[in-house]
From TrEMBL:
Protein encoded by which gene: LOC115874492
Keyword Membrane: no
Protein name: Uncharacterized protein LOC115874492
Coiled-coil residue windows: 43-73
CDD domains assigned to the protein according to its UniProt record, in alphabetical order: retropepsin_like
InterPro entries linked: DUF1758, DUF1759, Peptidase_aspartic_dom_sf
Amino acid sequence: MTEIERLVRRRAAFKAQITILNNYLNELEGKFINANITDDIILTELSQRKDRFINLIEKLDEVQLQIEEITTNFDVELDERTAFESDFNKTLARARYFLQKSKTTNIEQDNDNLSSQRSETGSDNVALCQNLNNLKLPAIEIPTYDGDYDTWLEFRDTYESLIHTNVNLSDIQKFHYLRAFLGPRVREIIASLAFSALSYKPAWELICNRFNNSRILKQNHVKALFNLNLIHEESSQALRKLIDIVSKHLRALTILDEPTNTWDTLVIYLISIKLDNETLKHWEEAKSGYVNPTLDNLTTFLKHRADMLETLEQSKNSKRVIPRSKGDNKTKAFVASKPYCVYCKKDHYIQNCEAFVRLSIEQRRTQAMKNHLCLNCLRLGHTSKMCYASSCKTCNARHNTLLHEERVSSSENEQTVNLSSHINFNGDQVLLSTALLKIFDKNGKCHVARALLDSGSQSSFITEDFCNKLQFDVIPTKITVSGLSEAQSNVSGKISIQVHSKVNNFSFKNSFLVIRNITETLPNFKINIKNLNIPDNIKLADPHFYKPERVDVLLGADCFWNLMCVGQIKLNNGLLLQKGKLGWVIAGRMQSNPCTTTIRNFSKANDIDKQLTRFCELEEFRHSKPLSNEEKLCEEEFVRTFKRDSEGRFVVTIPLKQGPEVLGDKYDIAKPRFLSLERRFKRDPEFKKRYINFINEYKNMKHMSKIEHPDNATFSYYMPHHGVIKESSLTTKLRVVFDASCPSSSGYSFNDLQLVGPTIQSDLFSLLLQYRTYNYVISAI
């Protein structure tokens, strides 16, 4: 018996208990209606059956979760879950209704007693209410609960204190409030209950049973600690937000009986990797004074750091250049501040700093932006737009003379062409690929941007409106953007930002040209997603691709091909699903009603000087190509580690840019792909046989070995692999591919860490020349 068959049998046994209780209620229903029996024995038995029945749903839910984890037909199991949860809720509601009906007389008597008590205490409350009427307090609002486990405890405690335990409200009123404070998805849980006073308590118990799941609550709070937002630069607001988020989730875990007082080392690490470089540097210096630093030590440090940064931010905002107006005879006193260089930390202005002057122009600009200096006067407290100092002495532009950069090519030759055409024709509609991105602003706040993926554009673009939300400094750039019929618009600047995927942990840094508008809302036609049959396990990069929305970012060819992965699924209606690092994107031609608008995006950068330089380089014959810094490091690593082992084989280490510790967790990605590979083994015995032969050959050649004690490893990295069949191959029909490009939880893949060495083979041009020097050559296919 397989594992899934065993679980299905267990589920059937639990479902049988629902049927047994339902049949028992059918028998009691006639007795209650005909003779109105209120036998205590029957009521006690029914109460005991109900209590055992409530515990049944947790066991049934656990079995269903195990089935859903290993099943290949998720839609069938989802329907199965919906069916038994509906039967369970209806049966439980009937049992509680019968118990409540037998106690109706006692409830009415209790209500009469309660009314008399209210009348006796009413006179005492009059004076208090009159006093409170003169005091205006803010209204306490109960947030609508939408099923998020992170906010469950807050909703439950607020609702119970204001509504559930309020003796002044009847059950029918409480039921009305409960339905009003639940979101549409949560309200479906109690949709089968009749709107009556007797249904309130069963409804509240159903909600508590569903969401008062300590296991899932703990899991979500721990997940939030691992997914803290990265702080890109010093900010008091971002540090305080980080402290508040960590404290909130740790308090919640403590309430859920987790021993968080022993988690200091883990939480300190999770916080440290999210700090900006300057704050992390100061923390490393501060923690050297502790033998075993605690979480309280780190929290105290961050609070003091935030206070200091807030003081500096206020000081920067207060230091403004105040022009003296004519006719102003008032006496003003100013405190003369000592000159201070933010680069070398000495007592002189940065313009007079020898170390700063020795830097390249690009490095000076980077340091000025990093320290929030005005790019015009190189001082703190304002931006170049608010600066009254003189401009560059070389070109009169709004930047300091030390930041002036000579341009070899003129701005007329360096231009970006962005073609966007609208053509009337009768043909199929074309859906362009889009993705949702997460971009953090200067203060660490996350903004969601919609990106258009365009491999025909040499540059990437961002709209001015979205760029203003980020509050980053924009580098002025003079570039002209032209379209069809030579319609022109200007690029206002250039910005370099970190972009994050919305569906996974992948991120990358890219430069964007700032432009007023990229294109119109996409898509420009209606799409019926019910006819597409998109697989449920696919995570779309843009789940709302069918909704016409504004495009904030255009990702051009400078990053487009690095975002694509191996994997493509053909949908009906002519569309394609393409796997990418940002998630799956959907695009293609749709067979539907004729379309009257076609949008073409194309970007091209022309530079006459660069074209002439490339032409000269093509005609020039070079004996050797100089190595780059990365290629030199790679070659030095090879020379240093190259050796032969005792069996005569060559051994060399893999050259890495960074240490392997930056790689995140890969087990959760590699395991499902390996299980998928095993499922393919069951379907294709020949494929399984070839795969096993390859693994045995790999092991016999000592290319891999078994890890005897995996728990003792200080670092582990799991690399997914899959097989590619090519029956037409004369040598190797199965080729096993090790996916070192798959990103880990930190966003880095193993390929990202490897250095790229120099090209050893001759270039194509040399091979072609050599090919032509012989009268006869042999070619093989």
